[in-house]
Every structure is written in structure tokens, then in C-alpha cells.
Amino acid sequence: RLLISFKALLKSISSTKKCQKSEIISIVNEAGNEADKVWSPNAFIIYRREKKAKHNDVFSKRTEAEISKVVGKMWQNEPEDTKDMYYRLAEHAKEKHLEKYSGYIFIAIKRLKNC
């Protein structure tokens, strides 16, 4: 049983942030753990975090968007066996996330640009 009904959730969304392009909502799970903004990272996110930490001196004066572009090109040039390692790490992270937040539910709500 969820701690908040779906109708109550939609009502609170519509009354708080108007005219958002999109909103991402995560709900508290049955055990009462707050799973808000706690997603299991995908393979690229794990790779990006590692590269950013490793090359912090190079990335220190760049924006997050610039870092993502540079690391994205690095990711595209990685061999498949390297990417597979990160996919396995992401799968492991997903399993750990499911253990910690067993009742986690993710709902993405798209809104019109001009409402």
C-alpha cells in the first residue's frame, strides 16, 4: 500500500509547479524510506562519475554539460568489453537499489510546454 494515493499525488503536482516542461516524481515506498531522487545509476552514469573523478583537474573549470559531452565522446570510443563491465556494474547497482527501496515506484509526468 502506497503512503499517498495517485489522485493526491497528481493534485499536489498540479498545484505546486505550474507549466513545467516535464516533472519527475518518485514516491515513498511501503517501508517509509524516502526514495526521492535516488535512482540506480546506468552504465554511462557510473562511467561518467569515474572519469570525472579521475580527470578532476581537467574538468574542474567546466560545466556539467561540457563534462557530459566530453565523457560521452570517450564512452562512444570505448571498446565493447569495457562498456560491458559498466553494464554489469549498473545491473549490480540496480539490484542493490531494489533491495534498499523494495517498494520504489517511479512516475514520469510529461506536461505541455505552454500550459
Automatic annotation (TrEMBL):
InterPro entries in the record: HMG_box_dom, HMG_box_dom_sf
Domain HMG box per the UniProt entry, residue ranges: 37-105
UniProt cross-references to Gene3D superfamilies, sorted A to Z: High mobility group box domain
DNA-binding region: 37-105
CC per GO annotation: nucleus
Source organism: Rhizophagus irregularis
Name of the protein described by the UniProt record: MATA_HMG
Pfam families reported in the protein's UniProt record: HMG_box
Lineage top rank: taxon: Eukaryota
UniProt-recorded Gene Ontology molecular function terms: DNA binding
Keyword field: DNA-binding, Nucleus
